[in-house]
């Protein structure tokens, strides 16, 4: 207030602000600044890096789908799609575990130490006692059509719980906005589940001892994109169209939550 009342200072301040702009009259400086300004304008997240982790590895490929396809294959395809969607939103990305050989889980989070956010990509199964048998391609397979939908997990042992939860909620919200529904069954009070809700509306649960979540040095979220032992949902999750819709929603949620930090 006093500065404004003095009469001199606003003019002086204005001159100081305008002085660096004169540098722009210098052609070499203009040439150097132009690409930088262009990048900044094109990407609000130019410095923000997201680590996208392919859940599981070749020796332990996770769940098996109703038609016998390993979860690792679903995770690889979706993680690559999420990485590409995140890049097209201007985020920097790193893909972790894509070669299928990263068997030590703590190495994944160590590899992501330079990132701002860690997302582990998985596909879901159900408790074994819900599984039934059917024949597919003359092979007896296990399935359950009881549950479908996505789930998100955060760990209260992660050092950035509030940020992890903000991102999980933003991802769930974006997935719901794209027409997907949370599965909700991981909160059921039965052995093997009991993962309390952190944000029921957006399908987020606490799962404190998940290694990648608790060892991450960054905010971290684990996504179960859908239930691959469900016969209908498996087909949807395998379609490129669904994969792109999931990836676009996940990238949108991540982008939104990271701009809030
Ligand atoms: Zn998994």
The strand order across the widest sheet is 2-1-3-9-6-8-7
CATH class category label of the largest domain: Alpha Beta
CATH-defined architecture of the largest domain:
3-Layer(aba) Sandwich
- CATH fold annotation of the largest domain: Aminopeptidase
**Succession of helices and strands:** HHHEHEHEEEEHEEHEHH
Description:
41% of the residues lie in helices and 18% in strands. It has 261 residues and is an alpha/beta fold. The chain folds into two domains: 2-40, no CATH class; 45-258, 3-Layer(aba) Sandwich (Aminopeptidase). A seven-stranded mixed beta sheet has the order 2-1-3-9-6-8-7, with helices on both faces. α4 packs across α9 (240-260). The longest helix is centred in the C-terminal third of the chain and has 21 residues, at 240-260. Residues 1-14 and 36-42 have low confidence and may be disordered. Bound molecules: zinc ion (ZN). Zinc ion (ZN) binds next to loops. Zinc ion binds next to loops.
Task: Summarize the helices and strands and which ones pair or pack.
Elements: H1 2-6, H2 9-18, H3 27-42, E1 49-54, H4 71-88, E2 92-96, H5 105-111, E3 117-124, E4 132-136, E5 139-143, E6 151-154, H6 161-177, E7 197-199, E8 204-206, H7 211-215, E9 220-227, H8 231-238, H9 240-260
Parallel strand pairs: 1-2, 1-3, 3-9, 6-8
Antiparallel strand pairs: 4-5, 6-9, 7-8
Helix pairs in contact: 4-9, 6-9
């Amino acid at each position: 207030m006093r500065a404004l009342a003095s009469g001199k200072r606003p003019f002086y301040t204005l001159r100081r602000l305008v002085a660096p702009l004169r540098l722009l009259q210098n052609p070499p400086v203009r040439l150097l600044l132009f690409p930088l300004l262009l990048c900044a304008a094109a990407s609000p997240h130019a410095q923000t890096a997201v680590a996208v982790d392919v859940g599981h590895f070749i020796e332990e490929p996770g769940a098996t789908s109703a038609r016998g396809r390993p979860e690792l294959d679903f995770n690889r395809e979706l993680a690559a799609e999420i990485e590409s969607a995140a890049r097209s939103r201007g985020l920097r990305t790193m893909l972790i575990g894509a070669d299928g050989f990263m068997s030590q889980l703590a190495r994944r989070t160590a590899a992501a130490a330079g990132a701002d956010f860690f997302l582990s990509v998985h596909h879901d199964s159900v408790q074994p006692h819900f599984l039934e048998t059917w024949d597919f391609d003359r092979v007896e397979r296990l399935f359950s059509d009881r549950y479908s939908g996505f789930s998100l997990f955060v760990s209260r042992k992660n050092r950035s719980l509030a940020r992890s939860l903000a991102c999980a909620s933003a991802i769930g919200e974006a997935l719901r906005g794209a027409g997907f529904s949370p599965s909700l069954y991981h909160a059921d009070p039965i052995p093997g589940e009991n993962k309390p809700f952190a944000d029921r509306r957006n399908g987020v649960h606490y799962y404190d001892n998940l290694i990648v979540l608790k060892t991450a040095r960054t905010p971290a979220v684990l996504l179960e994109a859908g239930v691959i032992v469900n016969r209908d949902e498996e087909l949807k999750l395998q379609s490129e169209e669904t994969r792109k819709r999931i990836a676009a929603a996940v990238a949108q949620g991540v982008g939104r939550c990271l701009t809030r930090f």
